[in-house]
From TrEMBL:
Organism from which the protein derives: Ancylomarina salipaludis
Cofactor binding note: Binds 1 zinc ion per subunit.
Domain of life: Bacteria
UniProt keyword terms in alphabetical order: Aminoacyl-tRNA synthetase, ATP-binding, Cytoplasm, Ligase, Metal-binding, Nucleotide-binding, Protein biosynthesis, RNA-binding, tRNA-binding, Zinc
PROSITE patterns: AA_TRNA_LIGASE_I, TRBD
Designated name of the protein: Methionine--tRNA ligase
Annotated compartments: Cytoplasm
Length: 676
């Protein structure tokens, strides 16, 4: 018997400086939604709390880049994120934001409570300051050369090239990202939470009392605790955030990682006047769904804050996931290397559950996993369509064909019938066990086993053959198949809510609660509706379009980040003047036999007509370049290529992706015109 009477589930607050992508969904929001939907179906008192994290340096950086205010940025992305979650079926009880009045009041009150209890240490230290911008520089506003890998674009907190965590003072030739000036060190005062004070308590609470936590969470916490905790600043010199509510704190705000988790509290306040029973009652439990980069904040820092305040419960579990990569590369907002949820919803209408299924089946629960569009297509076509959809469609179509859409009455059951029906409660129990222990990938696999069971049952009983000799036996077969279909609408609902609702529409039935899953969900004589396809096949061209979209992103990133090749050694003017470069017109072009890259060109140079062999066949079709004016190096020593004497060279520009383009005059000039 559980000692808890209610459950508060929180999800990591996404930064409102960009949309939500599949990495966020797989790591946090899909598993949280599955879990909460399951608890609701059981009749539990549960709240799902979410919101946008709208403070911190990433927001101000985005605002400066776009030339707008931080409020403009958070308003834009909060609305995109919230709308995407709603359309995708993440069933928040409340989705709030940290720029709200309630949040500012709650965070200020929390800080003042700790301040008045003497829980903070006031400390003065030297930090980088930009005199021209007249402000202290947050870590992300400082760039320089990484001392480890020599990346010249490292930030003051981390080098994104080699992944090393840094202090701003570690950087070689540190510069302000605002003005480009070399910053100076200047004294500033901040408030620190003495985590070391709570180290003994946290060791007992985590390492002894919560050994059931996932190994990745427990292991990371143990590592932090074994290395010893230190005081951590809870304020920042910044003009965007919750102002520090004490005297002598002008120009300072609450550090975003002090402010953000309090957003869970303020969001609950906005949702219900009974918020305290979820946060302070001993018979309430709190569960944080987060990614692995947030483990320390939710397992060590936030619990220390709550313990210091004294009246709040601490999390009962923190089922953190690892990271989801995309096509073999780390998902990156700054590089636009992501599958964005709002774009997916537009490009794959009414396919929310396909993505929910794939992200759950491939969830990074124990290690980083990889999302590929080919796997997405294969799981849809080979599992959702071929197993789940195929079974339901066959059961419903045969019922309409043989019995006019009325659920037939089951006759006497044979051993195979009994064995099949007996699997329903067994599978239900397995799903429950896995959901209760946050093994969502395995829970979905078990739920799909019910569809596999139905498919096997139909394949083994072959009602389309038996109907010719034994109609009563077919009634029993289809009755059992329809009962499995009805139970699928319940057991699949936490994972695939849109599909469950669609299936109930086909079966013309009301929602069955979790406890009411039974082998007799549909009474004999019940009229079912004409079925449509539960899922549709996704074609190769649809997937290729997504692969091409990512490839275009990769090329765009390479172009943006391309560093030009170093300038060659100087030559003198006389050497340069020896080159005779003229404008010529291509009059004929053909591919060179048995080669992929070579074209044989006939060029009118104004002086003569000559043959030039050029390696541009992969970039231009012969028929497309007739009449094209090009730059020709005239006095290059002739050279034989594939038996053809080439008399000169066509000048080309090469892009970062290896694409070639002619160096041509911007307007037509006479053939033979010199290029100077």
């Amino acid at each position: 018997m559980s000692k808890f009477n209610r459950t508060l589930v929180t999800t990591a607050l996404p930064y409102a400086n960009g949309p939500v992508h599949i990495g966020h969904l797989a790591g946090v929001y899909v598993p949280a939604d599955i879990y909460v939907r399951y608890l609701r179906m059981k009749g539990d008192d549960v709240l799902l709390i979410g919101g946008s994290d709208e403070h911190g340096v990433p927001i101000t950086i985005k605002a400066k880049k776009e030339g707008v205010s931080p409020q403009d940025v958070v308003d834009k992305y909060h609305n995109i994120i919230k709308d995407s979650f709603e359309k995708f079926g993440i069933s928040f009880d409340v989705y709030s934001r940290t720029s709200s009045k309630t949040h500012h009041e709650t965070a200020s009150e929390f800080f003042k409570t700790l301040h008045d209890k003497g829980e903070f240490i006031e400390k003065t230290s030297e930090q980088f300051y930009d005199a021209e911008a007249n402000q202290f520089l947050a870590d992300r506003y400082i760039t320089g050369t990484c001392p480890h890998c020599k990346n010249e674009k490292a930030y003051g907190d981390q080098c994104e090239s080699c992944g090393t965590s840094l202090n701003a003072t570690d950087l070689i030739d540190a510069r302000s990202a605002i003005t480009g000036n070399k910053p100076e060190l200047k004294e500033t005062k901040h408030w620190y939470l003495p985590l070391d004070k709570y180290e003994p308590y946290l060791k007992e609470w985590i390492l002894e009392e919560h050994k059931e936590w996932k190994p990745n969470v427990y292991g990371q916490c143990k590592s932090w605790l074994d290395n010893g905790l230190h005081p951590r600043a809870v304020t920042r010199d910044l003009d965007w955030g919750v102002p520090v509510p004490v005297e002598g704190a002008d120009g300072k705000v609450l550090y975003v990682w002090f402010d953000a988790p309090i957003g869970y509290i303020s969001a609950t306040k906005e949702h219900t006047p009974d918020w305290e029973k979820y946060w302070k009652a001993e018979d309430s439990r709190m569960i944080h769904f987060i990614g692995k980069d947030n483990i320390v904040f939710h397992c060590i820092i936030f619990p220390a804050m709550l313990k210091a305040e004294g009246s709040y419960i601490l999390p009962d579990n923190v089922p953190s996931n690892e990271f989801l990569n995309l096509e073999g590369d780390k998902i990156s907002t700054s590089r636009n290397w992501a599958v964005w949820l709002h774009e997916y919803l537009e490009e794959f209408p009414e396919k929310q559950d396909v993505l929910r299924y794939v992200l759950t089946a491939n969830a990074p629960e124990t290690k980083d996993n990889d999302f590929t569009w080919k796997d997405f297509q294969a799981r849809n076509n080979n599992e959702l369509v071929a197993i789940f959809g195929n079974f339901v469609n066959r059961a419903l179509v045969l019922t309409h064909k043989y019995f006019g859409g009325l659920v037939p009455e089951a006759g006497e059951l044979n051993d195979f019938d009994k064995e099949t029906l007996a699997q329903i409660p067994v599978l239900k129990a397995e799903i429950e066990k896995n959901l209760e222990t946050f093994h969502f990938r395995e829970a979905l696999k078990v739920a799909m086993n019910l569809a596999r069971l139905g498919n096997k049952y139909l394949a083994d009983t072959e009602p389309w053959k038996v109907i010719k000799t034994d109609e009563d036996r077919v009634k029993t077969i289809l009755n059992i198949s329809l009962q499995i279909s009805a139970n699928l609408s319940t057991l699949m609902e936490p994972f695939l809510p849109f599909t469950a609702e669609k299936l109930r529409g086909f079966l013309n039935m009301d929602r069955i609660e979790w406890a009411d899953v039974t082998a007799n969900a549909l009474p004999a004589g019940h009229q079912i509706n004409k079925p449509e396809l539960l899922f549709e096949k996704i074609e190769d061209e649809t997937i290729q379009a997504q692969v091409d979209k990512l490839e275009a992103t990769k090329v765009a990133n390479e172009l943006e980040n391309r560093v030009a090749t170093p300038v060659k050694e100087n030559i003198n003017f006389d050497d340069f003047m020896k080159m005779d470069v003229r404008v010529g017109t291509i009059t004929e072009a053909e591919k060179v036999a048995k080669t992929k890259k070579l074209l044989k060109l006939t060029v009118d140079t104004g002086v003569d007509t000559r043959t030039i062999v050029s390696g541009i066949a992969e970039h231009y079709k012969p028929e497309d370049i007739i009449g094209k004016q090009v730059s020709v190096l005239m006095n290059l020593e002739p050279r034989k290529l594939k038996g053809i004497e080439s008399q000169g060279m066509i000048l080309m520009a090469e892009d970062a992706d290896g694409k070639l383009a002619f160096v041509s005059p911007e307007q037509a000039v006479a053939a033979g015109s010199e290029v100077r």
